[in-house]
Amino acid sequence: MSRDWESVFSTWSQGPSATEQQRAENAERQIKQAISASDKLHDRNIKIFTQGSYRNRVNVRKDSDVDVGVVCFDTFFPEYPNDDNIKSTLQKSFSDSTYTYAVFKNEIEEALVSRFGRASVSRGNKSFDIKENTYRVEADVAAFFEHRRYTSTTHYLSGVEMIPDNSSPPRVRNWPEQHYENGVKKNTATNRRYKKVVRILKSLSNEMASNGIHSAKKSPGFLIECLVWNAPNKDFSRSTYKSEIRAVLAYLFNNTLSDDKCSEWGEVSELKYLFRNSQPWTRQGAHNFISDAWDYIGYK
Q: What tens digit of pLDDT does each residue of 203-226 get?
């Protein structure tokens, strides 16, 4: 008997259960309390924000950890335009900070350990892992300084930047606010279908990976979200989930056949290219996943 994919997709399109959502909110709240209670961080210009699939509401059931960012605005990392005059003018107005990223990350660690206990906090290369319990889901906490991408002497785009402990890669720059805003806009423009399709394909990838399909194991949820972002809005207007997933996969398959068709594709933020050397995935790897997903579902 063939599988009822429409029913499966309908289930996968939904977000985490109310219980899972509550445990995620509990984790977020406790992390904010930990940072707020720190004497060393108390007087810093800090913003605590959720990011990733939880914040963007594309998290899937039984895969609902929480990503929390802690960004300090007292110090920033500048990125200058390719204009020597602008760069020179800006550099003259800046001075090196005495408050370093390494000190900030250590103070974040102290605050988390004080709140959750050493056994529940693990320091990773890029973030801290907070172990789950019956009250909260697992959480990742990342420390950032503000990243400023200057476009002139008076205007810049504000993102976040970190320095991994092993400096591999040397820096990580993200644009969480722009990502969130663009995702909301596309979801609205597609009658709230965009995020449902992302959840479906992320759940499909999880199932494929559990069944040993290599391309799914190599395709993180963030990549899948960005791939779906690049599908045209008209492909989210089909009458069934099965036909909608078919349309999106067909578009992504045809446009990842070669580099030239997707070289200008961006992440959801539209501030980073999706397929460039700095990314941990490749266009060919994404294409393989899309092809395997098509075959796994059984489209003709």
A: 999 999 999 999 999 999 999 999
Q: How far is CA 282 from CA 153, 174, 198, 214, 218, in A?
A: 35, 19, 19, 14, 10
CB 126 within 8 A of CB 52: no
Cβ–Cβ < 8 Å for 244, 197: yes
Domain boundaries, the chain: 16-174, 180-297
Architecture in CATH for domain 16-174:
2-Layer Sandwich (3.30)
DSSP designation for 234: G
Regions of the chain with pLDDT less than 70 = 1, 62-64
Nearest to 163 by CA among 80, 105, 111: 105
- For residue 200, give the nearest of 257, 233, 240 by alpha carbon: 240
CB count in 10 Å sphere of residue 64 = 19
